[in-house]
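haha ok so turns out i had the wrong file open the whole time. this is the CORRECT one, sorry everyone. sequence first:
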Amino acid sequence: MKIQDLDLGDRPLFLAPMEDVTDPSFRHLCKRFGADMMFTEFVNSDGLIRDAESCQRKLNILENERPIGIQLYGHIIESMVEACKIATEAKPDVIDINFGCPVKKIANRGAGSGMLKDTPKLVEMTRQIVNATHIPVTVKTRLGWDNESKQIVELAERLQDVGIKALTIHGRTRTQLYKGEADWSLIGEVKANARMHIPIIGNGDIDNPEKAVEHFNRYGVDGIMIGRATYGSPWIFKEIKHYMHHGERMQPLTVEQKVSIAKEHLLKSIEFKGERRGILELRRHLTCYFKGLPNFKEIRLKLVTTDCPHKLDGLLSLVAQRYAGFVQDENINPSPWV
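then structure:
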């Protein structure tokens, strides 16, 4: 699969852009575990052109993260074009436009998936952004605003016509939010459309290796993007690739192995953000690493209230000791894992 001249190989796996999730420390882990391409947290175009520190910080990308994209969102064409020019200076491999975020405070003011209610404006915004940068422009969107306006087949053609180089489609409408099951049938219809020649990336509900392979085979997508299933499981990319290559699942991680990854995440978060902010913003991740552990409530509370990195490290070591050898599938004996 290629995005213009960017060759991502066969059946690449993408880390979805997620606010407060896909920061540099989490991207570091996802890259190590096999993500073929990643995206920053999405960037508010209005904040970026106002030079807001929080928005500028999201443009900081490292060479070892490549290929990587910067995703922008907003509802004012002029602001999005200006933000695109600023993002271009950060030299990402791709600039992605967010037409898919369903969060109320974003969509209700016409940004994210809110743009799906004004297709002419959406297409014109895309055209102007494409013309404002030499970097490949991609789009991430949904099937439509609601069940009565699933316009993605026609919209995909129009977006391709104004110059985007790849399209990611989440298999839900905006009104669905994240409820119910993602409908990939229209994603497959876009991919099967003889007019389409840009890569089509599917997104929605891919949370295990079998489902990833089945969706590649059934719907013919060029790539798969994974979002919520990466919470507490940045190794999901490695699991999927192992299944693709060997036809069987890799050994599940023991708690000790997950603790080692959580400690690495802690160190990277502090390295990139400083001790206080690094620990505070890591809390949303920490307990996700240990979902499903029995009698975990007391330790969980300490993990999300401890401010000292040394105490956190000690708590994580305690988790490893208390649940030594524990795996979710107790019929599989843990083995050394790299």
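The first helix runs from residue 24 to 32.
again sry for the mixup
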